[in-house]
Amino acid sequence: IMAKNKDARSLTFSISVVGLSGTEKEKGNCGVGKSCLCNRYVRPDADNYYSEHTSVLSTIDFGGRVVNNDHFLYWGEVNIRGEEGLDCKIQVIEQTEFIDDQTFLPHRSTNLQPYTKRAAATKLQSAEKLMYICTDQLGLEQDFDQRQMPDGKLNIDGFVLCVDVSKGCNRKFDDQMKFINSLYSQIVKSKKPIVVAASKCDEYMDQHLRDLQTFVASKKNLMLIETSARFNVNVEHCFNTLIQQIDKTRGKPKTIPYQDAYKVHRQLAASVTERFEKLMVQTVRDYHITWKTVINNLKGQPDYDEFITLEGSRKARSMFTKYIAQLKQEHIKRRREEYLVTLPKTLNNIFCSLEEVEHLSWPEAQTIIRNRQDFQCWFVVLDHTPWDESDHIDNSDRRIPFDLLNTPDGERIYYSHVQHLLSEKRRVEMKDRFKKTLERVHFISPGQPWEEVMCFVMEDEAYKYITESDRKDVYCRHQQEIVEKAKEDFQEMLFEHAELFYDLDLNATPSCDKMTEIHSVLNEEPRYRALQKLAPDRESLLLKHIGFVYHPTKETCLSGQNCVDLKVEQVLANRLVQLDHGRSNLYYTSANIDKINLCLLGKDGLSQELANEIRAQSTDDEYTLDGKIYELELLPVDVNSTLLFSHTWVATFKPHGCFCVFNSIESLNCIGDCIGRIRAEIAQNRRDQFAQPLPFILILSSQRDNVCKNIPILRHQGQQLANKLQCTFVDIPSGAFPRKFTEFQIKQGLRAVLEGLKHNLDVLAPLPCIKDMAETDLRIVMCAMCWDPFSVDLILSPFLDSHCCSAGQQGQSNTLILDKIIGDNRKRIQVTILSYHSAIGVRKDELVHGYILVYSAKRKASMATLRAFLAEVQDVIPVQMVAITDSQADFFESDAIKELMTEGEHIATEIAAKFTALYSLSQYHRQTEVFTPFFNEVLEKKPNIEKAFLLDSSTRDCTTSEDVFPTSPHSHLPAYTAYYPESDDDNEAPPPYSPIGDDVQLLPTPSERAKYRIDLEGNEYPVHSTPAGDHDRNHKVPPPVRPKPVLPKPNVKKLDPNLLKTIEAGMRSNRRMPRGPVSHTEDVEASDNYAEPVDTLVRSRGFHSDNIYVVPEDAHSRLVKITPPFLHSGGDEENGFDRKSQAMRRPSKYKHRSKILFSKTKAYQRRFHSDSDGEEFCPATQKKKKGRAHRGSEEDPLLSPADPWKIGIDNPAITSDPNVKKTKREKHRFNYTLAKQPKSTKPPKPLYPPTRRTWDSNYFGVRLQNLVTSERPIPLFIEKCVEYIERTGLTTEGVYRVSGNKTDQDNLQKQFDQDHSIDFGEMDLAVNAVAGALKAFFADLPDPLIPYSLHPELVEAANIMDYIERLEVLREIVKKFPPINYQIFKYIMTHLNRVSQHSKTTLMTADNLSICFWPTLMRPDFENRDTLSTTKLNQAVIETFIVQSDYFFHGGDVAESSSNEGTPPPHCHNMVEALLPLQLPPPLQPQQIQHTLPPDPLI
């Protein structure tokens, strides 16, 4: 049959798809899937598959060319290709029944047969019928592919019978099967192959499928194919099965169950989808890309085409959209993660301290963050929120959106940060605890491995808490510290054994015997053995040290950049310039000044008012003064102006003077600070050593509104400041004036400026010629130890702070020149500052007239190096020894410092050298006058020094060394004539104010230091030494005497009248001396300026006298004795050295004149060579002589015990002159006798110090019983002071410690004396002044607040070991106070307890407060040695009362004490004995002490 109907080359089969059709009543709400089955087979691509096809049509659509008035649809043809090309064509038609959308009845067509018969027809005909695609095609045929049914007719070759096995839409399956039976019976008649297609198997019902299977099984040659058009499962297989039945030559396809076929299809779909997703991930990386762009990029890609075919473009775009959204979310996630990573770091920068955030909630923290100045650096506030829905996600700004903080993540990170700070704090604490644990394990040696130590600390809590890495880190750090410390100690030990290394010549090589000796000596040192496990490092350090000792240079100095030579060069390079022989930097060139530049300095517009007043008195800026017209240029400057902080305003404006106006204490204080700042700035940036100082004029402004009651105070304070600053003070003229400034004041100020300019022109005389400059009269070498704990500026300050200092010659970077008046003439002194190692070559080869040897009293190595250097210095060269420490109090607080200062003083005494001390915390004595006595001695001995040098040079070959000095000077140069009048530094006249006056504080009061000597008001003042007999002399001004040459007088019974004049002149204070040189009267001989010390006179050996000088006390000439602190045995021989033959003998070395130097030098040889001969010179082996301590006479105003209560007590410069006491040197053994004297057992005597007041008072200095009542148990003055201090002073640093202005204290007491109701707040007083007045109140009481009778009981209680028992005993003792004393003591202790609670700001702990108050409250007798031994106990008692005030006075519990409970304060019983070996040098003369605070120089 087929051979007849078909062409063998191109077979074409027509298949008719039939199934239930008809109205809704017949088929239900939906069809059975015939159209979808045809659609999926003919056009299987997903994009061409339509799931909705309707059979309800309008008449127009039914009559269109697609339907063509037929009840069947032509779906087109499918080409089936085989291996050899085109196999066959399958034409598909669908038999259906179209319903009229108006009548809902079948449309009428040419074939009026029922569906069952019409569907079974095998021949179909319809002219020009178009291929059906989808429902939307109807009526819009021109928009779709228009293919016609071939030839307008078809012959059906087989049927596909569609049966819906799903649940159906309002249709019963049985009804459908009845219809299928009927339809099948009609089709089977055509004898065409039939295949039953179970449609919608993706929603099949088991029962329906079983029924259908039963139906198919009951029929012959009927096959059932389970299909799903939606998922394209078995659709093609269904048609292929039918074709096989039509064409028997084809192989029979295997029937595949729906589930298996669906699984295979899904696997294929999954594979295709996966490949498409990978393709999209590879292609799409930016979520901003569009779908259209992606399509263009993906077209032609197999993976893309397969996916489009299988799943369709719609699904592809859906996947693209999801992927783009995923990309965007991933981007947002990354940005969020970046922010969340940055946020902890930001919080760590903003809240780096746990104290800031420990108690802050997150909203509070956000508020603080928002208000910070750097908020914009970390965060950004967006206009549109939340940030992840705004354009910020595409912004390159990496600042954190502030709205992110409102998210849970932000809050979580904040609290995590707080927790991290807590844990980190705990971790750090544990690491610190573990570090302290390691520090307590003393057997840990440098270089010891961790494994050896670990077992000893495993039980420690901190060890268990921290990680192993932290343990090793802490131990490594600990090892580094102890190794570094051990190496430093080892290096320091090598320096301390200086005599062991400095006994060979320079550039030598140590022998094997020497190295054996060195190791033998050092092996006894624990610091040597400490590096036992680091023996190579130790040997390296030793060899490096030896190499440095034998080849000392700046390059090999072990201190590196801390070498003294480098430091000195840097300081001198910065502060000194080469002498300028011109005067180009002067503002003016002659005394004919016609233009004046005035700087007007004031506060709150006062300077501008003065400028307006001056302009009002001027005509076109020209001012007439004393018949001459001056052009004035004014520069008003406010004290708060930033102009004052500019470094160039002085050079730019070039002022000739400065008017400083004030009208209150506050403005006066500001003026004083500004003047000091201006002077310091000019001095620091000076370019010309001879530029003139800037005159400052202080002008007091009058009050226009009313007469200010503080005018006398302002006048007094202004005068005092003017005296201190060495400037002119212009007062308010008497009478009432309507303006703040008068013409008289302005003219007085201008006259002062002109006078200052004229004086400066006179001072700036022509400079010496170059030839004169090349010559120097004296050559001094100052030596210092590298690495000493003080600044080079300290030892240079006596020279650099002087006007007479200038730079040395070119090429001498560590040399300076001093122009000083020595004797009657001005001399040029060359001072070369070197390290000890650089000075060794100078000592051997250069002419040196004197040595200034500096050492640190804190460092044994410094003293050892000095000893080693000094031992080889020729004894004809004068030596000045200088001890450096922080303050005089160090002598009492440190046994090591006391020992080194004592040793230095002993060496100076033995070799007849001068000894002085400099203090880094004091500016008082940093001036050249400290060395003036030494320069005098050097000048006196200069001929002998040069002769000895020439003698020594002739006996040895000339050797070359580093050229430290220029060519040697001539032996007898003409005196260096004075090119300048005597400067202030050379002037012996006192300044216009007394340095020991009420308003001058001589020593600084740093916030942290140890116990100081304290006067009765609790004011601190350091004292160098107070051994029994020396106590008084440390605070008195001795008579201004100089040793006179020996005269053959048998005794001294009369006083030199000129001496009386000198003493009276020296005792005067507060008198301004005229500027200019001080000259002697012509009728006074040079010898008249000398006193006649008893020890300088020739007398019999049996003559002994304790009195060196006999001095009148006052104008009444009451004779008193000035007693030396220690007596020395007389005699002209010293250590076997005959002083009379000094000039005739060959020079020796100092080590042969000093027992200390000799014993130190020979000690190592005795240790190494047991057969050493000679006697050991040790002070301890010498026979001690008995003696007694000498006190000054009570009639002597200089040595009176009353003086310790005077204000401003100080003796900052300790200077010993051996010429005064060298003939009594042998009596130094008396020191040790004092140490063995039994302690005094007398009870403390009541002291009645002289009152501070200079006026009579009915309130101050009277007994407490007269100041209190039963209603007011506390004196009113105490209440007012305490109230004022607690209201305004609890934030003042150093309250009660820093001394207030004494004038303000006196004014406060005076005004309170007159009016008890005054308000302290209206008096414009500083807190320290009120605090000082309160302490002065207690100091002026007839009896101390703590009765003397209870002092022994308090001391005894302080020695109780158990802390609680000690408190109970003290509470019982305090109950024994008189009732009035008890109430006041309770009030004061409670107040001090409140003050101590603010110690973080005031720096005044209970310990510091007790130091300030115990002398005031207890009034001890400082002359009693028992008092000195109980000083710390008394202070500790007061500290206990302050700390435990609540327990003692208010019934409270015991407070936690910072001190060690159960341990009484350290005893001081041996303090006096320990101090005695130091022989203190005599204090400065009155002229020296008064001159130690020179007028502050401008430059």
Automatic annotation (TrEMBL):
Q: Which GO terms describe its biological process?
A: regulation of cell size; Rho protein signal transduction
Annotated CDD domains:
pseudoGTPaseD_p190RhoGAP-B, RhoGAP_p190
Q: Does the keyword Glycoprotein apply?
A: no
**Taking every annotated instance into account, which residue ranges of this chain make up the domain PG1 pseudoGTPase?**
590-763
Q: Which residues form the Rho-GAP domain?
A: 1262-1449
Q: Where in the cell is it found?
A: Cell membrane; Cytoplasm
- FF domain location is 427-481, 482-548
The biased composition feature labelled Basic residues covers: 1142-1152
Q: Which GO terms describe its molecular function?
A: GTP binding; GTPase activator activity; GTPase activity
Protein keywords: Cell membrane, Cytoplasm, GTPase activation, Membrane, Nucleotide-binding, Repeat
Q: Which Gene3D superfamilies match?
A: FF domain (1.10.10.440), P-loop containing nucleotide triphosphate hydrolases (3.40.50.300), Rho GTPase activation protein (1.10.555.10)
Q: Which SUPFAM superfamilies does its entry note?
A: FF domain (SSF81698), GTPase activation domain, GAP (SSF48350), P-loop containing nucleoside triphosphate hydrolases (SSF52540)
Where is this protein primarily located? membrane
Q: Which is a Gene Ontology cellular component entry for this protein?
A: cytosol
Instruction: Tell me the segments the record calls region Disordered.
Output: 975-1003, 1018-1054, 1130-1152, 1167-1225
Biased-composition ranges for Pro residues? 1037-1048
What are the PG2 pseudoGTPase domain coordinates in residue numbering?
Answer: 779-944
> What is the protein name for this chain?
Rho GTPase activating protein 5
